[in-house]
Amino acid sequence: MDDDPREQISELEEQIEELAGALERCRKTALASKAAMVLGAILLAAIILGVVAFDPMAMVAALAALLGGIVVFGSIGRLDIRLVGDASANRHPGKYH
Fold first, then answer.
1. Contact of 62 with 40, CB cutoff 8 Å
2. Is residue 19 part of a domain?
3. Which whole number is the average pLDDT over 41-64?
4. What stretches of the chain show up as alpha helix (H) in DSSP?
5. Within a domain: 97
6. How many whole angstroms separate alpha carbon 34 and alpha carbon 65?
7. How close are the terminal C-alpha atoms of the chain, in Å?
8. Is residue 76 domain-resident?
9. CB neighbours of 30 closer than 8 A, spacing ≥ 6?
């Protein structure tokens, strides 16, 4: 890595922008998976309670939305995301990275 602090700052800013974009995509995916879980559960409950006429395709769609939302939301929860405050704990005192 070059010793020029301006270049290091520029590279860090690029990394921050990339990570911010990734975080926003994760938030959108988490929101979509929560919505799929809720809508799937509501449709499934409506079919079971007889509010909606039984239709095999609707039942499969409800189960797929519910289970798909659970799987996607669970996979997002397993990401190793660190807060900025946590990153300072990894540094050695007196050394800059």
1. yes
2. yes
3. 94
4. 5-49, 56-77, 84-87
5. no
6. 10
7. 10
8. yes
9. 73, 76
Domain containing residue 21: 5-90
Per-residue model confidence (pLDDT) at position 80: 65
Kindly state whether residue 39 falls inside one of the protein's structural domains: yes
**How many domains in the chain?**
1
Say if residues 69 and 43 touch (Cβ distance below 8 Å).
Answer: no
Question: Which tokens belong to 76?
Answer: 């997002």
Nearest-angstrom CA–CA distance, 63 and 70: 11
Q: Taking Cα atoms as reference points, which of 79, 82, 96 lies closest to residue 5?
A: 96
pLDDT tens, residue by residue, 16-45: 999 999 999 989 999 999 999 999 999 999
Rounded CA-CA distance 75/26 in Å is 10
- Taking the C-alpha atoms of residue 34 and residue 30, their distance in angstroms, rounded to an integer, is 6
C-alpha dihedral sign at 61, 66, 72, 75: negative
54 phi and psi, to 5 degrees?
A: -65, 130
